[in-house]
Design goal:
single chain; alpha+beta; 11 helices
């Protein structure tokens, strides 16, 4: 009797289900470390359950945000420094949630690649779990998609999805008025936007990611991969203490485009560019790339990662509380009649 020919398998098509299962087992301890009140089950189900009332909310309104890491991911993949991009992914989502006045509750990730490397994916997702832990969100699920033919060898992509909650009637922005003080919280570098321009500047300057950083310690790649700062816990404490009327997460569009998003019609902002010191990475980008000041202010955070509009009589107390919580605070200017952002002074 002749033997039947062996049919094709999913593994032969390039998808390794066993590797995916191994990844789930590897990341379970990291996910477990993010547990918080409200989580109703563990990883592994077809969906994840969360009870906002068990998390302490009486009449919760849910707030959702989704984002990625942008082309910063290209540098991480090219250099092999993967441990911080998971923090970036969480920060880009939860820093948006807190601008609505919401407390992050849980997070889900999407990791897509052509060929799954369990070790690399574990490093990335461990970073995601760390970002969740720092922001008080539970990592309750995600998706690992192995898609042969969709990605070049060694490449992968990330997306994140965060859900938060606030008590009904407490959402921000609210109560923004002429005369409100603008408080800026320092960034930890470029964060996770503008990297298409960063890459062009590095190329223009004749530098590779292994070149010595012209503005800090280590290689250029390492210096640029400092994770996005997580503002959640200090900002939530500030909101709960009273006097915060609006918050703007300074991402793509910079101060120029993000701050007006939280100001009511008829109100604008005056910002003193001399109120903070431009971090060395942005000075290098400006000088090495010949990037004009206006472009710096609408492409990068330029050293300010979050802006709060606060009641004038609460500005000093809030600035002190944020400083005590570890933030570097700059008094940027005021909310004024008008529209958009008017700058005074010089950035570079």
């Amino acid at each position: 009797m002749s033997e039947r020919k062996t049919g094709l398998t999913y593994a032969q098509a390039g998808v390794d289900i066993d590797a995916g299962n191994a990844l789930v087992e590897r990341i379970k301890p990291a996910a477990a470390a993010t547990q918080r009140s409200g989580v109703m089950d563990a990883l592994g189900g077809f969906g994840a359950l969360f009870d906002p009332r068990a998390a302490g909310f009486t009449d919760p309104v849910l707030v959702a945000a989704t984002d990625g890491v942008g082309t910063k991911l290209r540098i991480a993949i090219d250099t092999g420094h993967l441990d911080g991009v998971g923090i970036d992914l969480v920060a880009m989502c939860v820093n948006d949630l807190v601008c609505q006045g919401a407390e992050p509750l849980f997070f889900l990730d999407y990791f897509a690649t052509g060929k799954l490397s369990v070790d690399e994916a574990t490093r990335v997702i461990t970073g995601i779990a760390e970002g969740c832990r720092r922001s008080g969100a539970a990592l309750i699920g995600g998706e690992t998609a192995e898609m042969p033919g969709m990605y070049a060898k060694g490449d992968f992509d990330l997306a994140g999805f965060a859900v938060g909650a606030l008590e009904r009637g407490t959402q921000l922005p609210a109560g923004v008025a002429e005369g409100d003080v603008l408080l800026g919280l320092a960034s930890d570098g470029v964060h996770s936007n503008g990297f298409s321009l960063v890459r062009r500047v590095a190329e223009h300057a004749g530098l590779t990611w292994d070149s010595a950083s012209p503005f800090g310690d280590g290689s250029l790649g390492q210096a640029l991969l400092i994770p996005t700062r997580l503002y959640v816990k200090p900002v939530l404490a500030a909101i709960r203490s009273g006097g915060v009327h609006a918050l703007a997460h300074i991402t793509g569009g910079g101060i120029t485009e993000n701050l007006p998003r939280v100001l009511p019609k008829g109100l604008g902002a005056e910002v003193d560019l001399g109120a903070w010191d431009l971090p060395p990475v942005f000075r290098w980008l400006s000088e090495a790339g010949g990037v004009p000041e206006s472009e710096m202010l609408k492409t990068f955070n330029s050293g300010i990662g979050m802006v709060l509009a606060v009641a004038a009589d609460r500005a000093n107390a809030l600035a002190d509380a944020l400083s005590d919580a570890g933030e570097t605070v700059a008094r940027l200017g005021h909310v004024v009649a008008g529209q958009g952002v008017a700058y005074s002074g010089r950035l570079v």
